[in-house]
Design brief:
heterotrimer; A mainly alpha (294); B alpha+beta (370); C mainly alpha (297); A: MetI-like fold; 2 domains; B: 370 residues; alpha+beta; Rossmann fold; OB fold (Dihydrolipoamide Acetyltransferase, E2P); six-stranded mixed sheet; five-stranded antiparallel sheet; 8 helices; 20 strands; 35% strand; elongated
Chain lengths: 294, 370, 297
């Protein structure tokens, strides 16, 4: 993985070339930071500073009022509740969905690498392909199924949906990780008399820390950021943060409070952004494992 | 019935049979080594004894109990793995006692057994460490401790020394041999290293291509190899096998071999029945150490033949000097004393101990039996 | 392990456990993914409107779909969007990766900055860019206030150019990820090959053109597959950034499916469009996954 490797393909370059390289890298750095800057500075200034052409300026008057409003009193849909209840909706949905999909992924990865059977690769391929389908193809039957199961419009319905369409990736992570875990250890434990779950619990799990972090972060980010399922299946009191943010920004009534929109956007971005800052290494590892061979 | 019986056992993956009718009976206290190049089926056979791979046909019995389908942990066996397979998250002590814990042995007994084994292997000071903090030799000892503590009927070793450096490997080899002599346990040991096989075993099964090529004591395997594969696989440098024709002079069968200049040497066989091969081609097998200078020839041998041939290369190795010559159109190595007066390009009179020579049928590659 | 006659019950249970443990996940995937796919494909041949109904109409939904100008626009937009998005991300990702691989100081920090957009929701990205590109308050207004009176930048409100703002926001979000993929590829190249090429007198340009970039083939392939599947699935970003407008200028198949199924009550046509999306992704993903899984054996 890239973070531990020291090999680079550096070429011998002159001073001018190097200065140019740094300049380009710096300019792109600014490009990537630009929207974040816009969101942050405009979330702490009064509305008239924005409408007056000062979007790129630092605030003249610093105020946290847009944040307070976005959190607790902005009009979302019909009620002036702010994003607060939707934030908790997201939490209530994300925590169980992440936990369940990670546990299932770990067990699946264990079975698919250490208890191999005929056709296991095909089964895994089926699970993996499920991650990449355009989810439009399952929206209609899923809506019906959730209705039949009595889960329509509920947080648990969303949990189910996210578990189903997340286990492909969690299985992939654990499978790739356990594939390089020495099989001799499993055999030694078998001879020592440990059973299926004992081997998993006592031998594999204690060594699974890093990949569990990868899986948890990936699932957390993905589920928190999901919009399609939230917009399709959530009810009035289970809507996640992303859907609420979109409602806030798209609402056509009244004055557009851009500063509140930006504050709301940051609120929606904050959990995943924090996770990224604290454990970015694991996030990148998860991203890469989903594309190139882990 | 032996202590461990491998009875007409085969192994197939789908339609491919990778192990063909293996029949070995191991007595209690025996040290059986399965040796062969990689892919010969030796590890598969070991895993079948362990219960880690199932048996396609035939039976494996331990103490007359059929083991087919019995879970590995219920066979009363223990195994030492090539990578040692120490549980990385447990201390040495926990590693050693994990098997006992899984079998429901109470803690005080586990502790007692652990300390006994640790003192036997002199690893008491390591008990609280994690495997990651151990050297290769120490890991090896812990792996053996984990096997010993179970007091099993049969010990299985899967190339246990191949991850150690050369010196440590020799030390541990001695250690294992001492342990076997002291405890008198029954051991099945897999290796690709023929020296390990020779030094450790009471019996060797040489395997190749899924067949047991020969089963016998180290001396039998070395002196009377069943075929060309066994002859060249066991021994280092390998046995020289060169084409020769059989001639008979005064009733004595002779191997006629071509020398470097196209002239022929005539080497008398001790094995009389080779006279029947008169005029036919054979493959002549001569071990390097049976080609020497005249002074170093085996005095007990009754059949030393002389042969003048040109030296191509000399390779001093300290205790011996290896000399390469051309014989029968092939490179042949002789193992000389280090003070032998040998120079590349010179003609030299070699003494060949033909008492030890063997002959193979070139068609079947099997040794022509006396 | 085989079920031999003399295996005891516990051993047999142990042998069965792995499959038992796998089965809930497998059942979920079979029902919720493959079962649902079959159901949706079936619906695309029925007269479903507001609710699923099972009157068989054959290919009617598909022929209707292909006659809809709305669908045609969505496809045309998809073509423009996917071509630009994939090529710009690839070029940018490769370029930045090569630059970043020149023993750059603060590489870790730069990487962190380039990649953070991947951690954000498309709704957040869409909101930020929506207002930044808005001519009334965003870039145009700012530059005019700063004195550049004639400056015009109203792409997001312009039918002919709005799709390019979607490209811009999408590139902003994913190009750092593509950079990371190429960087990993670059780091995987054997340094000694490069030393040998330099000994052979290869110029920097030739070093990259002839030696390094050809060795990045797997990274190119992965980038293409990932980017094309993301392109086809693009939905949230359009909803947040432009809502498909102005007019239908930024409608994509994903938004088309959503509005036909849930707002216009044309479920049969929606299902038909979803089926076409699935087939397109399958045509790209299945050979890729097949090759990846085969190699791993």
């Amino acid at each position: 993985m890239m973070s531990v490797s020291t090999q680079d393909t550096a070429i011998r370059t002159g001073r001018v070339t190097r200065a140019l390289i740094y300049l380009v890298l710096l300019l792109f750095g600014l490009f990537y930071l630009l929207p974040l800057y816009v969101m942050v500075v405009n979330s702490v200034k009064p509305l008239d500073e924005i409408t007056g052409g000062g979007m790129m300026n630092l605030p003249r008057v610093f105020t946290l009022e847009p944040w307070a409003k976005a959190w607790s009193s902005a009009q979302i849909g019909v009620d002036p509740t702010g994003l607060q209840p939707y934030f908790w909706n997201s939490i209530k949905m994300v925590v169980p969905a992440v936990a369940i999909s990670t546990v299932l992924g770990a067990l699946n990865g264990y079975v698919l690498t250490k208890w191999r059977f005929r056709g296991d690769t095909i089964l895994f391929g089926l699970m993996l392909f499920a991650c990449f389908i355009p989810f439009q193809i399952v929206l209609i039957p899923m809506a019906r199924m959730l209705g039949l199961m009595g889960l329509a419009g509920t947080t648990w319905g969303l949990v189910l949906v996210h578990v189903v369409y997340g286990i492909g990736f969690t299985t992939l992570y654990f499978r790739n990780y356990y594939a390089v875990f020495p099989t001799e250890l499993i055999r030694a434990a078998q001879i020592d008399g440990a059973g299926f779950f004992q081997i998993f619990w006592r031998i594999l799990l204690p060594s699974s820390g890093p990949i569990a972090v990868v899986s948890i972060i990936w699932q957390f980010t993905n589920i928190w950021n999901d919009f399609l399922f939230g917009a399709s299946f959530a009810g009035a009191d289970s809507q996640p943060m992303t859907v609420a943010l979109n409602n806030l920004v798209q609402s056509s009534t009244g004055v557009k409070e851009y500063n509140v929109h930006f504050a709301g956007a940051i609120l929606a971005a904050l959990p995943t952004l924090l996770v990224y800052i604290v454990a970015g290494r694991y996030f990148v590892r998860g991203l890469m494992a989903g594309s190139v061979k882990g | 019935m032996g202590f461990l019986d491998i009875d007409n056992t085969t192994k197939s993956y789908g339609a491919v049979e990778v192990l063909h009718k293996v029949d070995i009976s191991v007595e209690e206290g025996e040290f059986l080594v399965l040796v062969g190049p990689s892919g010969c089926g030796k590890s598969t056979l070991l895993n079948m004894i362990a219960g880690l791979e199932d048996i396609t046909s035939g039976e494996i019995r331990i103490k007359d109990q059929v083991m087919n389908g019995v879970h590995p942990s219920k066979r009363n066996i223990a195994m030492v793995f090539q990578s040692y397979a120490l549980y990385p998250n447990m201390t040495v002590g926990q590693n050693i006692t994990f098997g006992l814990e899984m079998h429901g042995v109470p803690k005080p007994e586990r502790e007692k057994a652990m300390h006994e084994v640790a003192s036997l292997l002199q690893i008491e000071q390591l008990l609280d460490r994690k495997p990651g903090a151990l050297s290769g030799g120490q890991r090896q000892r812990v792996a053996m401790g984990r096997a010993l503590v179970r007091n099993p009927d049969v010990f299985l070793f899967d190339e246990p020394l191949s991850n150690l450096d050369a010196k440590l490997r020799v030390d541990m080899r001695t250690e294992i041999k001492k342990l076997h002599q002291k405890l008198g346990t029954t051991i099945v040991y897999v290796t690709h290293d023929q020296i390990e096989a020779m030094t450790l075993s009471t019996r060797i099964a040489v395997m190749y291509g899924g067949y047991v090529q020969q089963l016998g004591t180290p001396q039998e395997i070395y002196d009377t190899p069943a075929n060309i594969f066994v002859a060249t696989f066991m021994g280092s440098p390998a046995m020289n096998v060169v084409p020769a024709t059989v001639a008979v002079e005064n009733g004595v069968p002779m191997a006629v071999v071509e020398l470097h200049d196209g002239s022929r040497a005539r080497l008398p066989f001790s094995q009389q029945n080779l006279a029947a091969w008169e005029g036919r081609e054979i493959m002549l097998g001569i071990r390097p150490e049976t080609i020497t200078d005249e002074d170093a020839a085996d005095r007990k041998s009754t059949n030393i033949a002389q042969m003048v041939n040109r030296i191509v290369v000399t390779e001093p190795a300290g205790s011996d000097t290896f000399v390469t010559m051309t014989l029968g159109g092939k490179d042949v190595i002789a193992r000389m004393r280090s003070d032998a007066d040998v120079r590349p390009g010179a003609d030299f009179t070699f003494a060949v101990n033909m008492e030890k020579a063997v002959a193979f049928d070139p068609a079947t590659e099997m040794r022509i039996l006396p | 392990m085989a079920h031999t006659a003399d295996a005891d019950f516990k051993t047999r249970l142990q042998n069965l456990l792995p499959k038992l443990v796998l089965s809930p996940s497998l059942a979920m995937v079979l029902v919720f993914v493959y079962g649902f796919i079959i159901f949706s494909v079936y619906l695309s041949f029925t007269d479903s409107r507001l609710l699923p109904s099972f009157g068989w109409v054959g290919w009617e939904n598909y022929s209707k779909l292909w006659r809809l100008s709305h669908w045609e626009i969505s496809l045309r937009n998809m073509g423009v969007f996917a071509a630009l998005y994939i090529s710009i991300c690839t070029v940018l990702g490769l370029g930045l990766a090569i630059f970043l691989d020149q023993k750059i100081r603060a590489e870790g920090m730069i990487r962190t900055i380039y990649l953070y957009p991947m951690a954000l929701s498309f709704i957040v990205t869409g909101t930020a860019w929506k207002w930044f590109l808005d001519p009334g308050i965003g870039l145009e207004n700012v530059l005019q206030t700063w004195g550049w009176e004639s400056f015009r930048f109203d792409w997001i409100k312009n039918r002919d150019y709005a799709i390019y703002t979607v490209v811009l926001a999408a590139v902003w979000q994913t190009s750092g990820f593509v950079m990371a993929m190429f960087l990993a590829g670059l780091r995987g190249i054997d340094n000694e090959i490069l030393k040998a090429a330099q000994m052979d007198g290869a110029s920097n340009w030739n070093l990259y053109r002839r030696i390094i970039i050809p060795q990045l083939r797997p990274a190119f392939l992965s980038a293409f597959v990932i980017l094309s599947h993301l392109a086809i699935k693009t939905f949230d970003l359009v909803i947040a950034l432009t809502g498909g407008g102005p007019g239908r200028a930024t409608e994509l198949p994903a938004t088309f499916m959503y509005s036909y199924t849930f707002s216009r009550n044309q479920m049969g046509i929606g299902a038909a469009s979803a089926t076409i999306m699935l087939m397109t992704i399958a045509a790209i993903m299945i050979p890729y996954l097949y090759a990846e899984l085969r190699e791993k054996k």
